[in-house]
Design goal:
The structure is a homodimer. The first copy, chain A, has an eight-stranded parallel β-barrel, surrounded by five helices. The first copy, chain A, has twelve helices and eight strands. In chain A, about 45% of the residues are buried. Chain A is an alpha/beta fold. At the A-B interface, helix 8 and helix 10 of A face helix 8 and helix 10 of B.
Chain lengths: ~325, ~325
């Protein structure tokens, strides 16, 4: 069964990998090289889908200095269409909807092959400047034009810790057409469990079927990346921050934390009976961090109860056989 | 090695059980019966120490209605001396210091056998009415009279979540003479890990040896007890609250949560190299909750790396062989 149908059927134990497209300053040839290396690196993971992030300059949502400069990237939709032609699974294209005029978003939706492209709409944060298109308008557009394209939404456990209403936001998004959710990077497992738990209870109370929640994990190879996570609003528990600060090998320590967090959430979602997926994101350009991300996805993938996939190899070569760019 | 020496040597993997003395309205005979049943029930656990709580009416620290009425109990020191004469291990007598005049506290300290009695001083919370004796005065009294009696302090992970200074309070108490700490009941493992982690980092930075931190766990057999935990200021993560609310068997569910939390903290303290202990408290009068507490202590005790104990049986009889009162 393909990804769109599995999500519609509230399928579970899905595996995703997320990448950021190359910077928009690279040549077409370089973008193609990067796409090919990425496909080669990820081919053996047997992913259910490849997530393509749409990077937005969020510097207006946080007055603190951004630890890494904002570098515009190629449009993920264009990167998918033009450079990932050989990629075998569906892609999940993020749309930071405020960046697009309604007619451009509508035109893009019209062109999509629903068997091959899913999309996640990301709304502007409340602190951001006037958006071109609001999330509500984008959802409305989707419903009027291409409701067959599987639509996802973002879930932010940290917001649940602060306002205790993220589960209600998820249900509102679900009512607006979302049939899956992808979280921000998870370091605070308790916050994620609180959200899933409240979401599950609310679905039960309303007689709704919960939709798959895809939890995102990433490795953190340096203290600068840790600062960046904090800047982005990711809650990293103090004990994990301390551990990463004092670890001989920050990357290895964060790999272990992410794996432990994923295992805990997997066990918890299975216990509750909430369908879920795991998304490992690699947004670094450092070889060691990319390798660790791929290894994390491979390890988690082995532990998921997955449907046999057609056309992908059950064997995963060791990391050292996978080329880097 | 006895408990006082093990604590002085920064020993680890200590096992405690905590009880509340009987209500002060019971007869001497009834108090003796309760003491004997308690001793019989706990004998096979091979405890390092028995903790006797000093119950204080804390209703002035929380304007909400107390879910259970406050019922004064026998003084724990008197209960230990008069009724637990046959108990084989040291006892850890709590002293809610604000309840006692300085001269009474001094007189009590003078009488103690340091091989048999350890004490934990509990200060008044900032919201409480003018205390007879402040924590600082009590510590000073201890230092001047019986510094050989091993002194402990309380550790409150929830306070660390709010103020991020509980590790500094622990170090200040350590400098005032405390050589171990006992936490409030732990349901929020992250808060406890944050506290241990910051405490460990601060000790390392100051060149101090960390002292044993004893984590307290309890089972929660009803939603009323859950309310009471909240009233007492115990942070129960939302997902655990939801799980307890929806569980077919609240007691069994809370047993599993407490065991999982204890295992996680045991693994974490071993990883950090911070000496620790586990304290299981039983403050309920319901037979099922008492049995579950004893079983929790037995299970955790089996998983600790413990020194062989003299004079206690390595065999633990099944719960059903232990009489109830």
């Amino acid at each position: 069964m393909d990804l769109a149908h599995r999500i519609a059927a509230r399928g579970s134990e899905l595996l995703f990998f997320a990448v950021t497209p190359p910077r928009d300053t690279v040549t077409q040839e370089r973008a193609q090289e990067i796409a090919e290396v990425t496909q080669k690196r990820l081919a053996a993971l047997g992913l259910d889908g490849l997530v393509l992030y749409d990077i937005d300059d969020e510097s207006d949502r946080n007055p603190e200095e951004r630890p890494f400069p904002f570098l515009p990237t190629i449009d993920p939709a264009a990167f998918g269409t033009e450079h990932l032609r050989d990629w075998s699974t569906p892609v999940v294209v993020y749309r930071a909807v405020r960046k697009y005029a309604e007619r451009d978003l509508a035109a893009w939706l019209e062109e999509q092959d629903a068997a091959r492209v899913l999309t996640v709409f990301v709304g502007a944060s409340s602190h951001q400047r006037q958006p071109s298109t609001t999330l509500a308008r984008a959802q409305d557009l989707w419903a009027r034009t291409r409701p067959d394209v599987v639509l996802g939404g973002v879930a932010i456990p940290e917001r649940h810790t602060q306002r205790v209403d993220e589960h209600l936001r998820l249900i509102a998004k679900q009512e607006a057409g979302c049939s899956f959710f992808v979280t921000q990077v998870v370091y605070d497992v308790n916050a994620a469990k609180d959200l899933v738990s409240d979401y599950h209870a609310e679905c039960t109370a309303r007689g709704l079927d919960p939709v798959p929640i895809v939890f995102t994990f990433s490795v953190c190879g340096s203290l600068r990346t840790l600062e960046f996570l904090a800047w982005l609003g990711v809650a990293v528990p103090r004990w994990i921050q301390n551990d990463l600060r004092h670890a001989d090998d920050t990357l290895q320590a964060s790999y272990e934390h992410s794996l432990a967090a994923a295992r805990e959430l997997i066990a918890y979602c299975r216990h509750l009976g909430v369908p879920f997926g795991i998304n490992v994101e690699s947004v670094s350009i450092r070889r060691a961090e990319i390798d660790a991300s791929v290894e994390l996805a491979r390890q988690i993938g082995q532990e998921l109860h997955r449907e046999p996939l057609l056309g992908t190899s059950p064997q995963t070569p060791p990391i050292s056989d996978i080329m880097s760019f």
